[in-house]
Design a protein that fits this description.
binds zinc ion, EC 3.5.4.33, 7 helices, 48% helix, alpha/beta, tRNA-specific adenosine-34 deaminase activity, single chain, CMP_dCMP_dom, hydrolase
């Protein structure tokens, strides 16, 4: 179940994705929220400099590993504008983070990019659960899908 609180955090992820776009980066944004609802960390995509591992979900996982106890990580939720790529899903799983809520799926992104004629990426997209079988995952969240799609269209325009 995606709650009103979840929607608020997903909305922030979409805002961060828009900030990434404004900064000339691919539009992705993520937020890490503690069990008590505290926003611990947020980030946006930062691959424009040439380091294509600078995804927000990866940064949040590494921050969590350095700053949270294992039980805090397991109780935290990662919100994100786009479903984790396999690298970020693996980091999430290795670090032992909890629930994931994404606005749009990798499958949706793949079909949008194909429509726009963007060549397939170097790393194949996989559903999070194929990388982390035990992950608790929710998404897409329909009310944000068009907005995220529009950000990707604008990035490729
Ligand atoms: Zn990623």
């Amino acid at each position: 179940m995606v709650s009103e609180v979840d929607r608020r955090h997903v909305r922030r992820c979409v805002e961060l994705a828009a900030e990434a776009l404004e900064a000339g980066d691919e539009p992705f944004g993520s937020v890490l929220v503690a069990e008590d609802g505290t926003v611990l960390r947020e980030d946006r995509n930062r691959v424009a400099g040439g380091d294509h591992t600078r995804h927000p979900e990866f940064e949040l996982a590494r921050w969590a590993a350095g700053n949270l106890a294992p039980e805090q990580r397991a109780a935290a939720t990662v919100y994100t504008s786009g479903e984790h790529c396999p690298m970020c899903a693996a980091a999430h799983g290795w670090v032992g983070l909890g629930r994931i809520v994404y606005a749009t799926s990798s499958e949706q992104l793949g079909s949008w990019l194909a429509e726009l004629g963007v060549p397939a990426p170097a790393v194949r997209a996989l559903p999070i659960r194929e990388v982390v079988p035990g992950a608790e995952v929710e998404g897409p969240v329909p009310e944000f899908v068009e907005q995220v799609r529009d950000l990707h269209r604008r990035f490729r325009a």
